[in-house]
Amino acid sequence: MTDTSFPDDFLIGAATAAHQIEGNNVNSTWWALEQRAGSFVSEPSGDAADSLHRWPDDLHLVASLGYHAYRFSIEWARIEPAPGQFSRAMILHYQRQIDGCIERGIVPVVTLHHFTEPLWFAKTGGWAGDTAAELFARYVGAVAHILEPVPWIATINEPNMVACAIGTLRRATGRAPAEPDDVPGAPLGPPDEAVAHGLTAGHHAARELLHERVPSAKVGWTIANQVVQAAPGGEQHADRYRERIEDRFLRESVRDDFVGVQAYSRNVFGPDGPVHDDAPDTRTLMGWEYFPDTVEHAVRHTREVVGNVPILVTENGIATSDDTRRIAYTRSALEGLQRAMADGIDVRGYLHWTLLDNFEWVSGFHPTFGLIAVDRTDFTRTVKPSARWLGEVARANGW
Ligand code: BGC
């Protein structure tokens, strides 16, 4: 490996998630949240990028751009629309996508849970319910047979964000006792313990099941790495925040086959709470600091916590309307990865977030993270220069 090249089997590609691109995921928890009066979600996902129907076009683009890998998720709410009732048609739908990757020479990286669940699952108590892990494993068991060609399976996306967001929301809305936060001004409060427990148990149950049913697959989960740093005097806040939002979840990966690292920006703490030294007009469309070195810090930190578990960067990207900035960000991010890898950190691939301009959870369609633009009325895809640039990097395994 030279300074500017990745190993031959290094995977370069792009990532997506079902709810954000497929459209009309009407039986899911997030759809219900979008429809609620006064919802904190800024607009409904609607047809999203219509990838439920247009996935062959998307795979065609992935292949023709020269990407090695494509990460997408299987939507539990479509597979199991009612408790214990599995849709054969939807299982076949995702099987066609997996096979479609293989036919086009794309390595599929499949996520089994990316922030959304069937509505009926929420009614059982969701991840805080007593049967959460069992119910999740039952769904995973129903799709295990289609995962045989999938070398990388992520059970649950960003359990740390899910548990901390639910904890924060429950305390803010009086559904859990409001407690003074020992990290003043922290963006997210401590996780909801029952939810954290359910997610962890669900991950472990799914991993055991998949090891048995799909022994060739590497199984892990993906963790949002917030790159928590301390300005002078902020060390204690940073340590506390890092532990509760990240490290306790990372430690659950030590027996996994890989850990997915996802990083976008960073959080810096001073003695009085978060500090922001960057110029506001340089922030991304998410309002986040432009900090492409985040991914290097994230993989180094992950290595410190999980040891030698192989790392796959399953998300990294930037919400911007300036595509040259996307290229600059991504190039810096990849250079940082190369530095970390030169120091012996076992990184197996880099999946850019995201393939398509899509539905961004709370913020709607405004923050454009995509390598490919999507027309909001007829869903036409337009490849951006950054998408081609990343394809050249993939073809050359570097630059
Ligand atoms: C999530 C994605 C999301 C991205 C940008 C990650 O937390 O996995 O679904 O779109 O960050 O906010």
Q: Helix count, per DSSP?
A: 13
The tally of beta strands, per DSSP, is 13
Q: Which kinds of small molecule does this entry bind, naming each only once?
A: beta-D-glucopyranose
How would you write the strand order of the largest sheet? 1-2-3-4-5-7-10-11
- Estimate the global geometry from the Cα principal axes: globular
Rg computed from alpha carbons, rounded to a whole number of angstroms: 20 Å
- Main sheet summary: 8 strands, parallel, barrel
Strand/helix succession: EHHHEHHEHHEHHEEHEEEHEHEEEH
State the end-to-end distance: 12 Å
Low-confidence stretches: none
- Beta-strand residue percentage: 5-15%
Outline of the structure:
This protein has 399 residues and is an alpha/beta fold. It has helices spanning 18-21, 29-35, 51-65, 76-79, 88-103, 119-123, 132-143, 159-172, 193-213, 235-250, 294-306, 323-342, 385-396, and strands at 11-15, 69-73, 107-111, 152-157, 218-224, 228-230, 259-262, 267-270, 273-274, 311-315, 347-353, 372-374, 381-383. Bound molecules: beta-D-glucopyranose.
Walk me through the structure.
By secondary structure, the protein is α/β, with parallel strands linked by helices. Helix content is 40%, strand content 15%. The protein contains 13 helices and 13 strands. Helix 7 (132-143) runs parallel beside helix 9 (193-213), helix 8 packs antiparallel against helix 9 (193-213) and helix 12 runs parallel beside helix 13. The chain starts with 10 loop residues before the first strand and ends with a helix. Beta-D-glucopyranose is lined by residues 17, 20, 157-158, 161, 224, 262, 315, 353, 360. The site of beta-D-glucopyranose has 10 residues, from loops.
